[in-house]
């Protein structure tokens, strides 16, 4: 379908596309991208290493030897350090991104550490310990554990709100998410979600948390203001990872059984695309500019690179400007405003900011 808006070419949105497949180490699991968007770090569980991918060329430029069975990977907000959980030896390794070498000794944490998230100020790392139902809190200044928090059964995913006030932890065998007050390091709430919750991602505006539920092929949507589940979105088989785009309009979900990624429109809370990727997709991370998604494929030792189409919903602006002088993509138009830049369309409702 082709639509016309005051001389502007408009078409239905192009589909997201896998544009590259990158060989990495054995059993790639988690992936994290540096704040400047230059590098992706991938934990390879089967060969005790972290692959470093140059995003400009989509090539593995080096590997870093870490502990036994690296799983969770998180980059500090200043981009200087990567924290890696080592499942097999109950520790966390710290990588200097300037030299891509491990610095200091491994940090002892709880039993079977899985995921790690770092506070927005970079001061603390929260590590889920799968086998002892706890979260270790690491002071990143000293790289020592300063608190251990009891949560639900077999915790996996952890995510921290953009304001740094709360950490959300997925408890994989009791269908719940624990909410931790990071000021007191105490659990202040528990939210019931679907069966087998795995990973949590929080929208950039902090208003919603998205939780993958492995056993019922769904994503739970949590209102973080009330800490209640407000919706459940069906996705593919055995969803594991989830990431939200920087503009909050889409969530990307890896479906481990289907070898696909589901793309959720966060405003409509429905799947709008399903993208075939590699074997056993585990996790997904999105570049800071929102143009690429990196998916770890656990079964075939690769990372799929998805080009994210930049259209707004089903409408793509092809060229030119809107009625009244509004520009496409700038958010600074007059009269008609702009599309995909946060302004309003034809003087009406907002076309640039989805309530995710």
Q: Count the domains.
A: 1
Secondary structure tally, helices: 0
Structural class determined from secondary elements:
mainly beta
Which percent bin holds the helix content?
A: under 10%
Mean pLDDT: 88
What's the CATH H-level homologous superfamily?
A: YVTN repeat-like/Quinoprotein amine dehydrogenase
Q: Give a count of the beta strands, DSSP E runs of length 2 or more.
A: 32
Specify the oligomeric state: single chain
Strand composition percent: over 45%
**Can you tell me the CATH class?**
Mainly Beta
Which segments are poorly predicted (pLDDT under 50) over 5 or more consecutive residues?
1-13, 317-356
Give the N-terminus to C-terminus distance in angstroms: 27 Å
Task: Tell me what the CATH architecture is.
Answer: 7 Propeller
Structure description:
The chain has 356 residues and is mostly beta strands. It has a single domain (17-307), classed as 7 Propeller (Methylamine Dehydrogenase, Chain H). Helix content is 0%, strand content 51%. The protein contains no helices and 32 strands. Strands 8, 9, 10, 11 and 12 form a 5-stranded antiparallel sheet that branches. A hairpin with a 4-residue loop joins strand 19 and strand 20 (186-192). It is globular and about 45 Å long. The chain starts with a strand and ends in a 39-residue tail after the last strand.
């Amino acid at each position: 379908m082709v639509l016309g808006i005051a001389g502007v070419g408009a078409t239905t949105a192009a589909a997201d596309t896998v544009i590259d497949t990158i060989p990495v180490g054995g059993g790639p699991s988690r992936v994290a991208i540096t704040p400047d968007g230059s590098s992706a770090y991938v934990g390879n569980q089967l060969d005790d290493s972290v692959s470093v991918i140059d995003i400009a060329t989509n090539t593995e430029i080096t590997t870093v030897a870490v502990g036994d069975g690296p799983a969770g990977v998180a980059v500090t907000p200043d981009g200087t350090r990567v924290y890696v959980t080592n499942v097999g030896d109950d520790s966390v390794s710290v990588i200097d991104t300037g030299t891509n070498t491990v610095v200091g000794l491994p940090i002892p944490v709880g039993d079977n550490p899985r995921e790690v998230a770092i506070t927005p100020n970079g001061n603390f790392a929260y590590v889920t310990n799968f086998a002892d139902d706890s979260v270790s809190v690491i002071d990143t200044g000293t790289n020592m554990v300063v608190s251990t928090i009891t949560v639900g059964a077999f915790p996996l995913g952890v995510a921290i709100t953009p304001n740094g006030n709360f950490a959300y932890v997925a408890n994989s065998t009791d269908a719940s998410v624990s909410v931790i007050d990071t000021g007191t390091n105490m659990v202040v709430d528990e939210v019931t979600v679907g069966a087998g919750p795995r990973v949590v991602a929080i929208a950039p505006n902090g208003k919603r948390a998205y939780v993958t539920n492995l056993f019922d092929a769904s994503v739970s949507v949590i209102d973080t203001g009330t800490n209640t589940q407000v919706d459940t979105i069906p996705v593919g088989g055995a969803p594991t990872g989830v990431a939200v785009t920087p503009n909050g309009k889409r969530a990307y979900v890896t479906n481990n059984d289907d070898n696909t990624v589901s793309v959720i429109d966060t405003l409509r809370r429905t799947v709008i695309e399903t993208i075939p990727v590699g074997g056993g997709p585990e996790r997904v991370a999105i570049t800071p500019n929102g143009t690429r998604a990196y998916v770890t494929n656990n079964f075939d030792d690769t990372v799929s690179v998805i080009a994210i189409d930049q259209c707004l919903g089903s409408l793509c602006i092809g060229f030119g400007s809107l009625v009244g002088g509004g520009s496409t993509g700038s958010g600074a138009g007059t009269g008609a405003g702009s599309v995909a830049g946060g302004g309003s369309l034809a003087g009406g409702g907002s076309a640039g900011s989805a309530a995710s």
